[in-house]
Design goal:
By secondary structure, the chain is α+β, with helices and mostly antiparallel strands. It is built from 12 helices and 35 strands.
Length: about 625
């Protein structure tokens, strides 16, 4: 793993906003039931669209770590989605698992805003966000959602335009990429649940694009992981201030240490203004600098207070620069510091006026970092999936690491089997085969079940031990939607086979009825036979794939396709829209009250509760 994704090597950084028009009717189990009350929540008419808003290249660096020059033509390029097809989709797995939303069908392009020339384009491999935490320390009541998270993925089938030759940074990036793939990270925060200043369903974003090397994971960087840490926790209603989890890489060739704080530094507002040193300080502690250092001893814990000479200082972090560089900082090292960093834990430190330092965040125990790559799975009964794990020790592939797995909820009645033991091999990689049985229909009209598998490189009390791993016991799991067994009939009948499926979709996604076709109306569907066939036979990664939420089993999709194919070619002149049946939007506050809370926000705030708890093990037990 040398170099390592966008951390080592040429990269471009960008900043802007995004649109995420997620549907919320499918957040509540009762909305799936034919006779149950629908729970619209805060955006019942969402179309699942994801797109960039006013995103522009703000910086980066070229070969040998040289910062992007002010006159580099790459500076100011706009970051946009696809030019010739539907926008990407933002999708949850299931109402029982809303904590790792995925991006499907996203295209990322860098375009000259003056000429319209496309300099770089690639397809974003499907990826789910990770490291969800309460990042916004003020104005959370304005947005309704103060959490932040990070999508890490690869751009596939990357192409470059002629204009790349004029940009030293983009030229270096193209030369450093050994394949038609690039590494990308998107850090998202400041998302608006509320209708304020025309920002509803939008949020803020920073990101980086850099090289991807064969053998690296697709959805995270297998570098040196620093866990989240508590900066201070004042008495309510004052906000708890954290630093989120981060990732670092030791570049031995220059040498230097590169650390990505893009999803780690707290922001004061929804526009992403970084926390100041005053924000990091409390009545009990003045923080005069935020620093990166190397600890002298593996036994030094978070919150430990160190003498001025008890650590090897790497450098100070100026958070005011964080947005333009997407939170990525590079610090040159002398040979002695580089040698020390290679074998000792990294840390983020709060320097105090007297020169002492408090450890806020530190590297994982023994420098070991284990994580599942593609961790969100959709598996039909009778089929299999593969969960791939990577292990790294101080940024280097770690073979022979035993990964301990545990099914959440016990094994009785489980529909998902997995292979054991799990030990990493060459490249620090291990693969686990997931085998889906038939779960039946224990949730009534909601297809199948959701299964979760916890994992860690150590155990405590017979369970995977997340302490010192840099991971969250509530969020870092392998999760699978195991679909109910279903046999698609050769000649599907509308009332018996198709109507129960599509009527549910009509309830869950009223935007279809309002703007295109009523999925519960067979006459309307006949007129839209060809467009529906086109959408339902796309590849699942296509943004035009129907259903947009990817929650329909292959057998049920096949049944609908057969029914559509067996219909006579009929009038296909346009949609069937009945304005009288358009659902009236429920007031936002009332919808939120009926929904009874937000799963993503609750999970994000759990990180802070764990870090502030006197007994971390007890806090972790809340998520078991």
């Amino acid at each position: 793993m040398d170099p390592m994704s966008y951390l080592d090597g040429p990269r471009v950084s960008f900043v802007g906003r995004f649109f995420g028009d997620v549907p919320t009717m499918n957040n509540s189990p009762s909305s799936f039931q034919p006779s149950g009350p629908t729970v619209p929540a805060w955006n019942p008419g969402g179309g699942a669209t994801f797109d960039f808003l006013d995103c522009r290249v703000s910086g980066g660096e070229g070969a040998s770590g040289v910062a992007m020059a002010g006159g580099d033509p790459a500076r100011g390029l706009v970051v946009v989605g696809a030019a010739d097809r539907s926008s990407a989709k933002l999708v949850d797995l299931d109402p029982a698992w809303q904590l790792s939303s995925q991006l499907w069908g996203l295209v990322v392009r860098l375009v000259d805003p003056a000429s319209g020339e496309e300099l770089l384009s690639g397809s974003f491999r499907v990826s789910a966000f990770r490291d969800l935490w309460t990042r916004q320390i003020a104005q959370g009541e304005v947005t309704g959602q103060p959490s932040g998270g990070s999508f890490t993925s690869v751009l596939e089938n990357v192409t470059y335009g002629p204009g790349v030759a004029a940009s030293p940074v983009l030229s270096a990036l193209r030369q450093a990429a050994p394949t038609a793939r690039l590494s990308i990270v998107l850090n998202v925060f400041g998302y608006f649940y509320r209708h304020v200043a025309g920002r509803f369903a939008t949020g803020s974003l920073t990101g980086c694009i850099g090289p991807w090397q064969p053998g690296e994971p697709d959805s995270f960087v297998a570098g040196r992981r620093l866990g989240p840490g508590l900066v201070h926790a004042l008495a309510p209603p004052a906000p708890r201030v954290l630093l989120g989890a981060s990732i670092a890489s030791l570049d031995k060739h220059i040498p230097r240490l590169v650390i990505d704080l893009g999803n780690a530094y707290p922001v004061v507002d929804y526009d992403g203004r970084p926390a100041s040193l005053a924000d990091l300080s409390s009545p009990g502690e003045t923080v005069s600098a935020l620093e990166v250092g190397v600890l002298d001893d593996e036994a030094v814990t978070a919150n430990a207070l160190l003498d001025a000479d008890a650590t090897t200082l790497v450098g100070a972090v100026d958070l005011s620069q964080a947005p333009s560089r997407a939170g990525v900082y590079a610090f040159p090292l002398d040979p002695a510091a580089a040698d020390r960093a290679a074998g000792h834990p990294l840390a983020l430190l709060a320097r105090r006026p007297d020169g002492t330092r408090r450890v806020i965040c530190r590297e994982t125990t023994g420098g070991l970092y284990v994580r599942a790559d593609e961790f969100v799975h959709r598996i039909d009964a009778g089929f299999t999936g593969v969960a791939r794990f990577y292990a790294a020790r101080r940024g280097e592939p770690a073979s022979g690491v035993r990964i301990h797995l545990q099914r959440l909820g016990g094994s009785a009645g489980s529909a998902l089997g997995f292979s054991e033991p799990v030990v990493t091999g060459v490249g620090g990689i291990a693969e686990v085969q997931l085998t889906a049985g038939d779960p039946g229909t224990p949730r009534g009209a909601i297809d199948g079940v959701v299964e979760r598998i916890r994992y860690a490189p150590r155990t405590a009390g017979g369970s995977p031990d997340y302490a010192g791993t840099g991971l969250s016991p509530g969020l870092d799991v392998v999760v699978a939607h195991v679909r109910s067994a279903y046999q698609a009939p050769e000649v599907p009948d509308w009332a018996r086979d198709i109507q129960p499926i599509l009527a549910q979709y009509a309830r869950l996604y009223p935007i279809m009825r309002e703007h295109l076709v009523d999925l519960a109306d067979p006459d309307a569907l006949r007129r839209w036979r060809q467009p529906l066939l086109l959408a339902m036979t796309r590849d699942i990664t296509d943004p035009n794939f129907m259903p947009v939420t990817r929650d329909l089993s292959e057998a049920k999709r096949a049944a609908i396709v057969r029914w559509l194919e067996q219909l006579p070619a009929a009038d296909q002149t346009g949609p069937s829209i009945d304005a009288g049946r358009t659902m009236a939007a429920e007031p936002i506050a009332a919808a939120e009250e009926r929904f009874g809370g937000d799963a993503k926000r609750a999970a994000a705030e759990a990180t802070g509760r764990r870090l502030a708890a006197p007994d971390p093990a007890a806090a972790a037990g809340e998520e078991r």
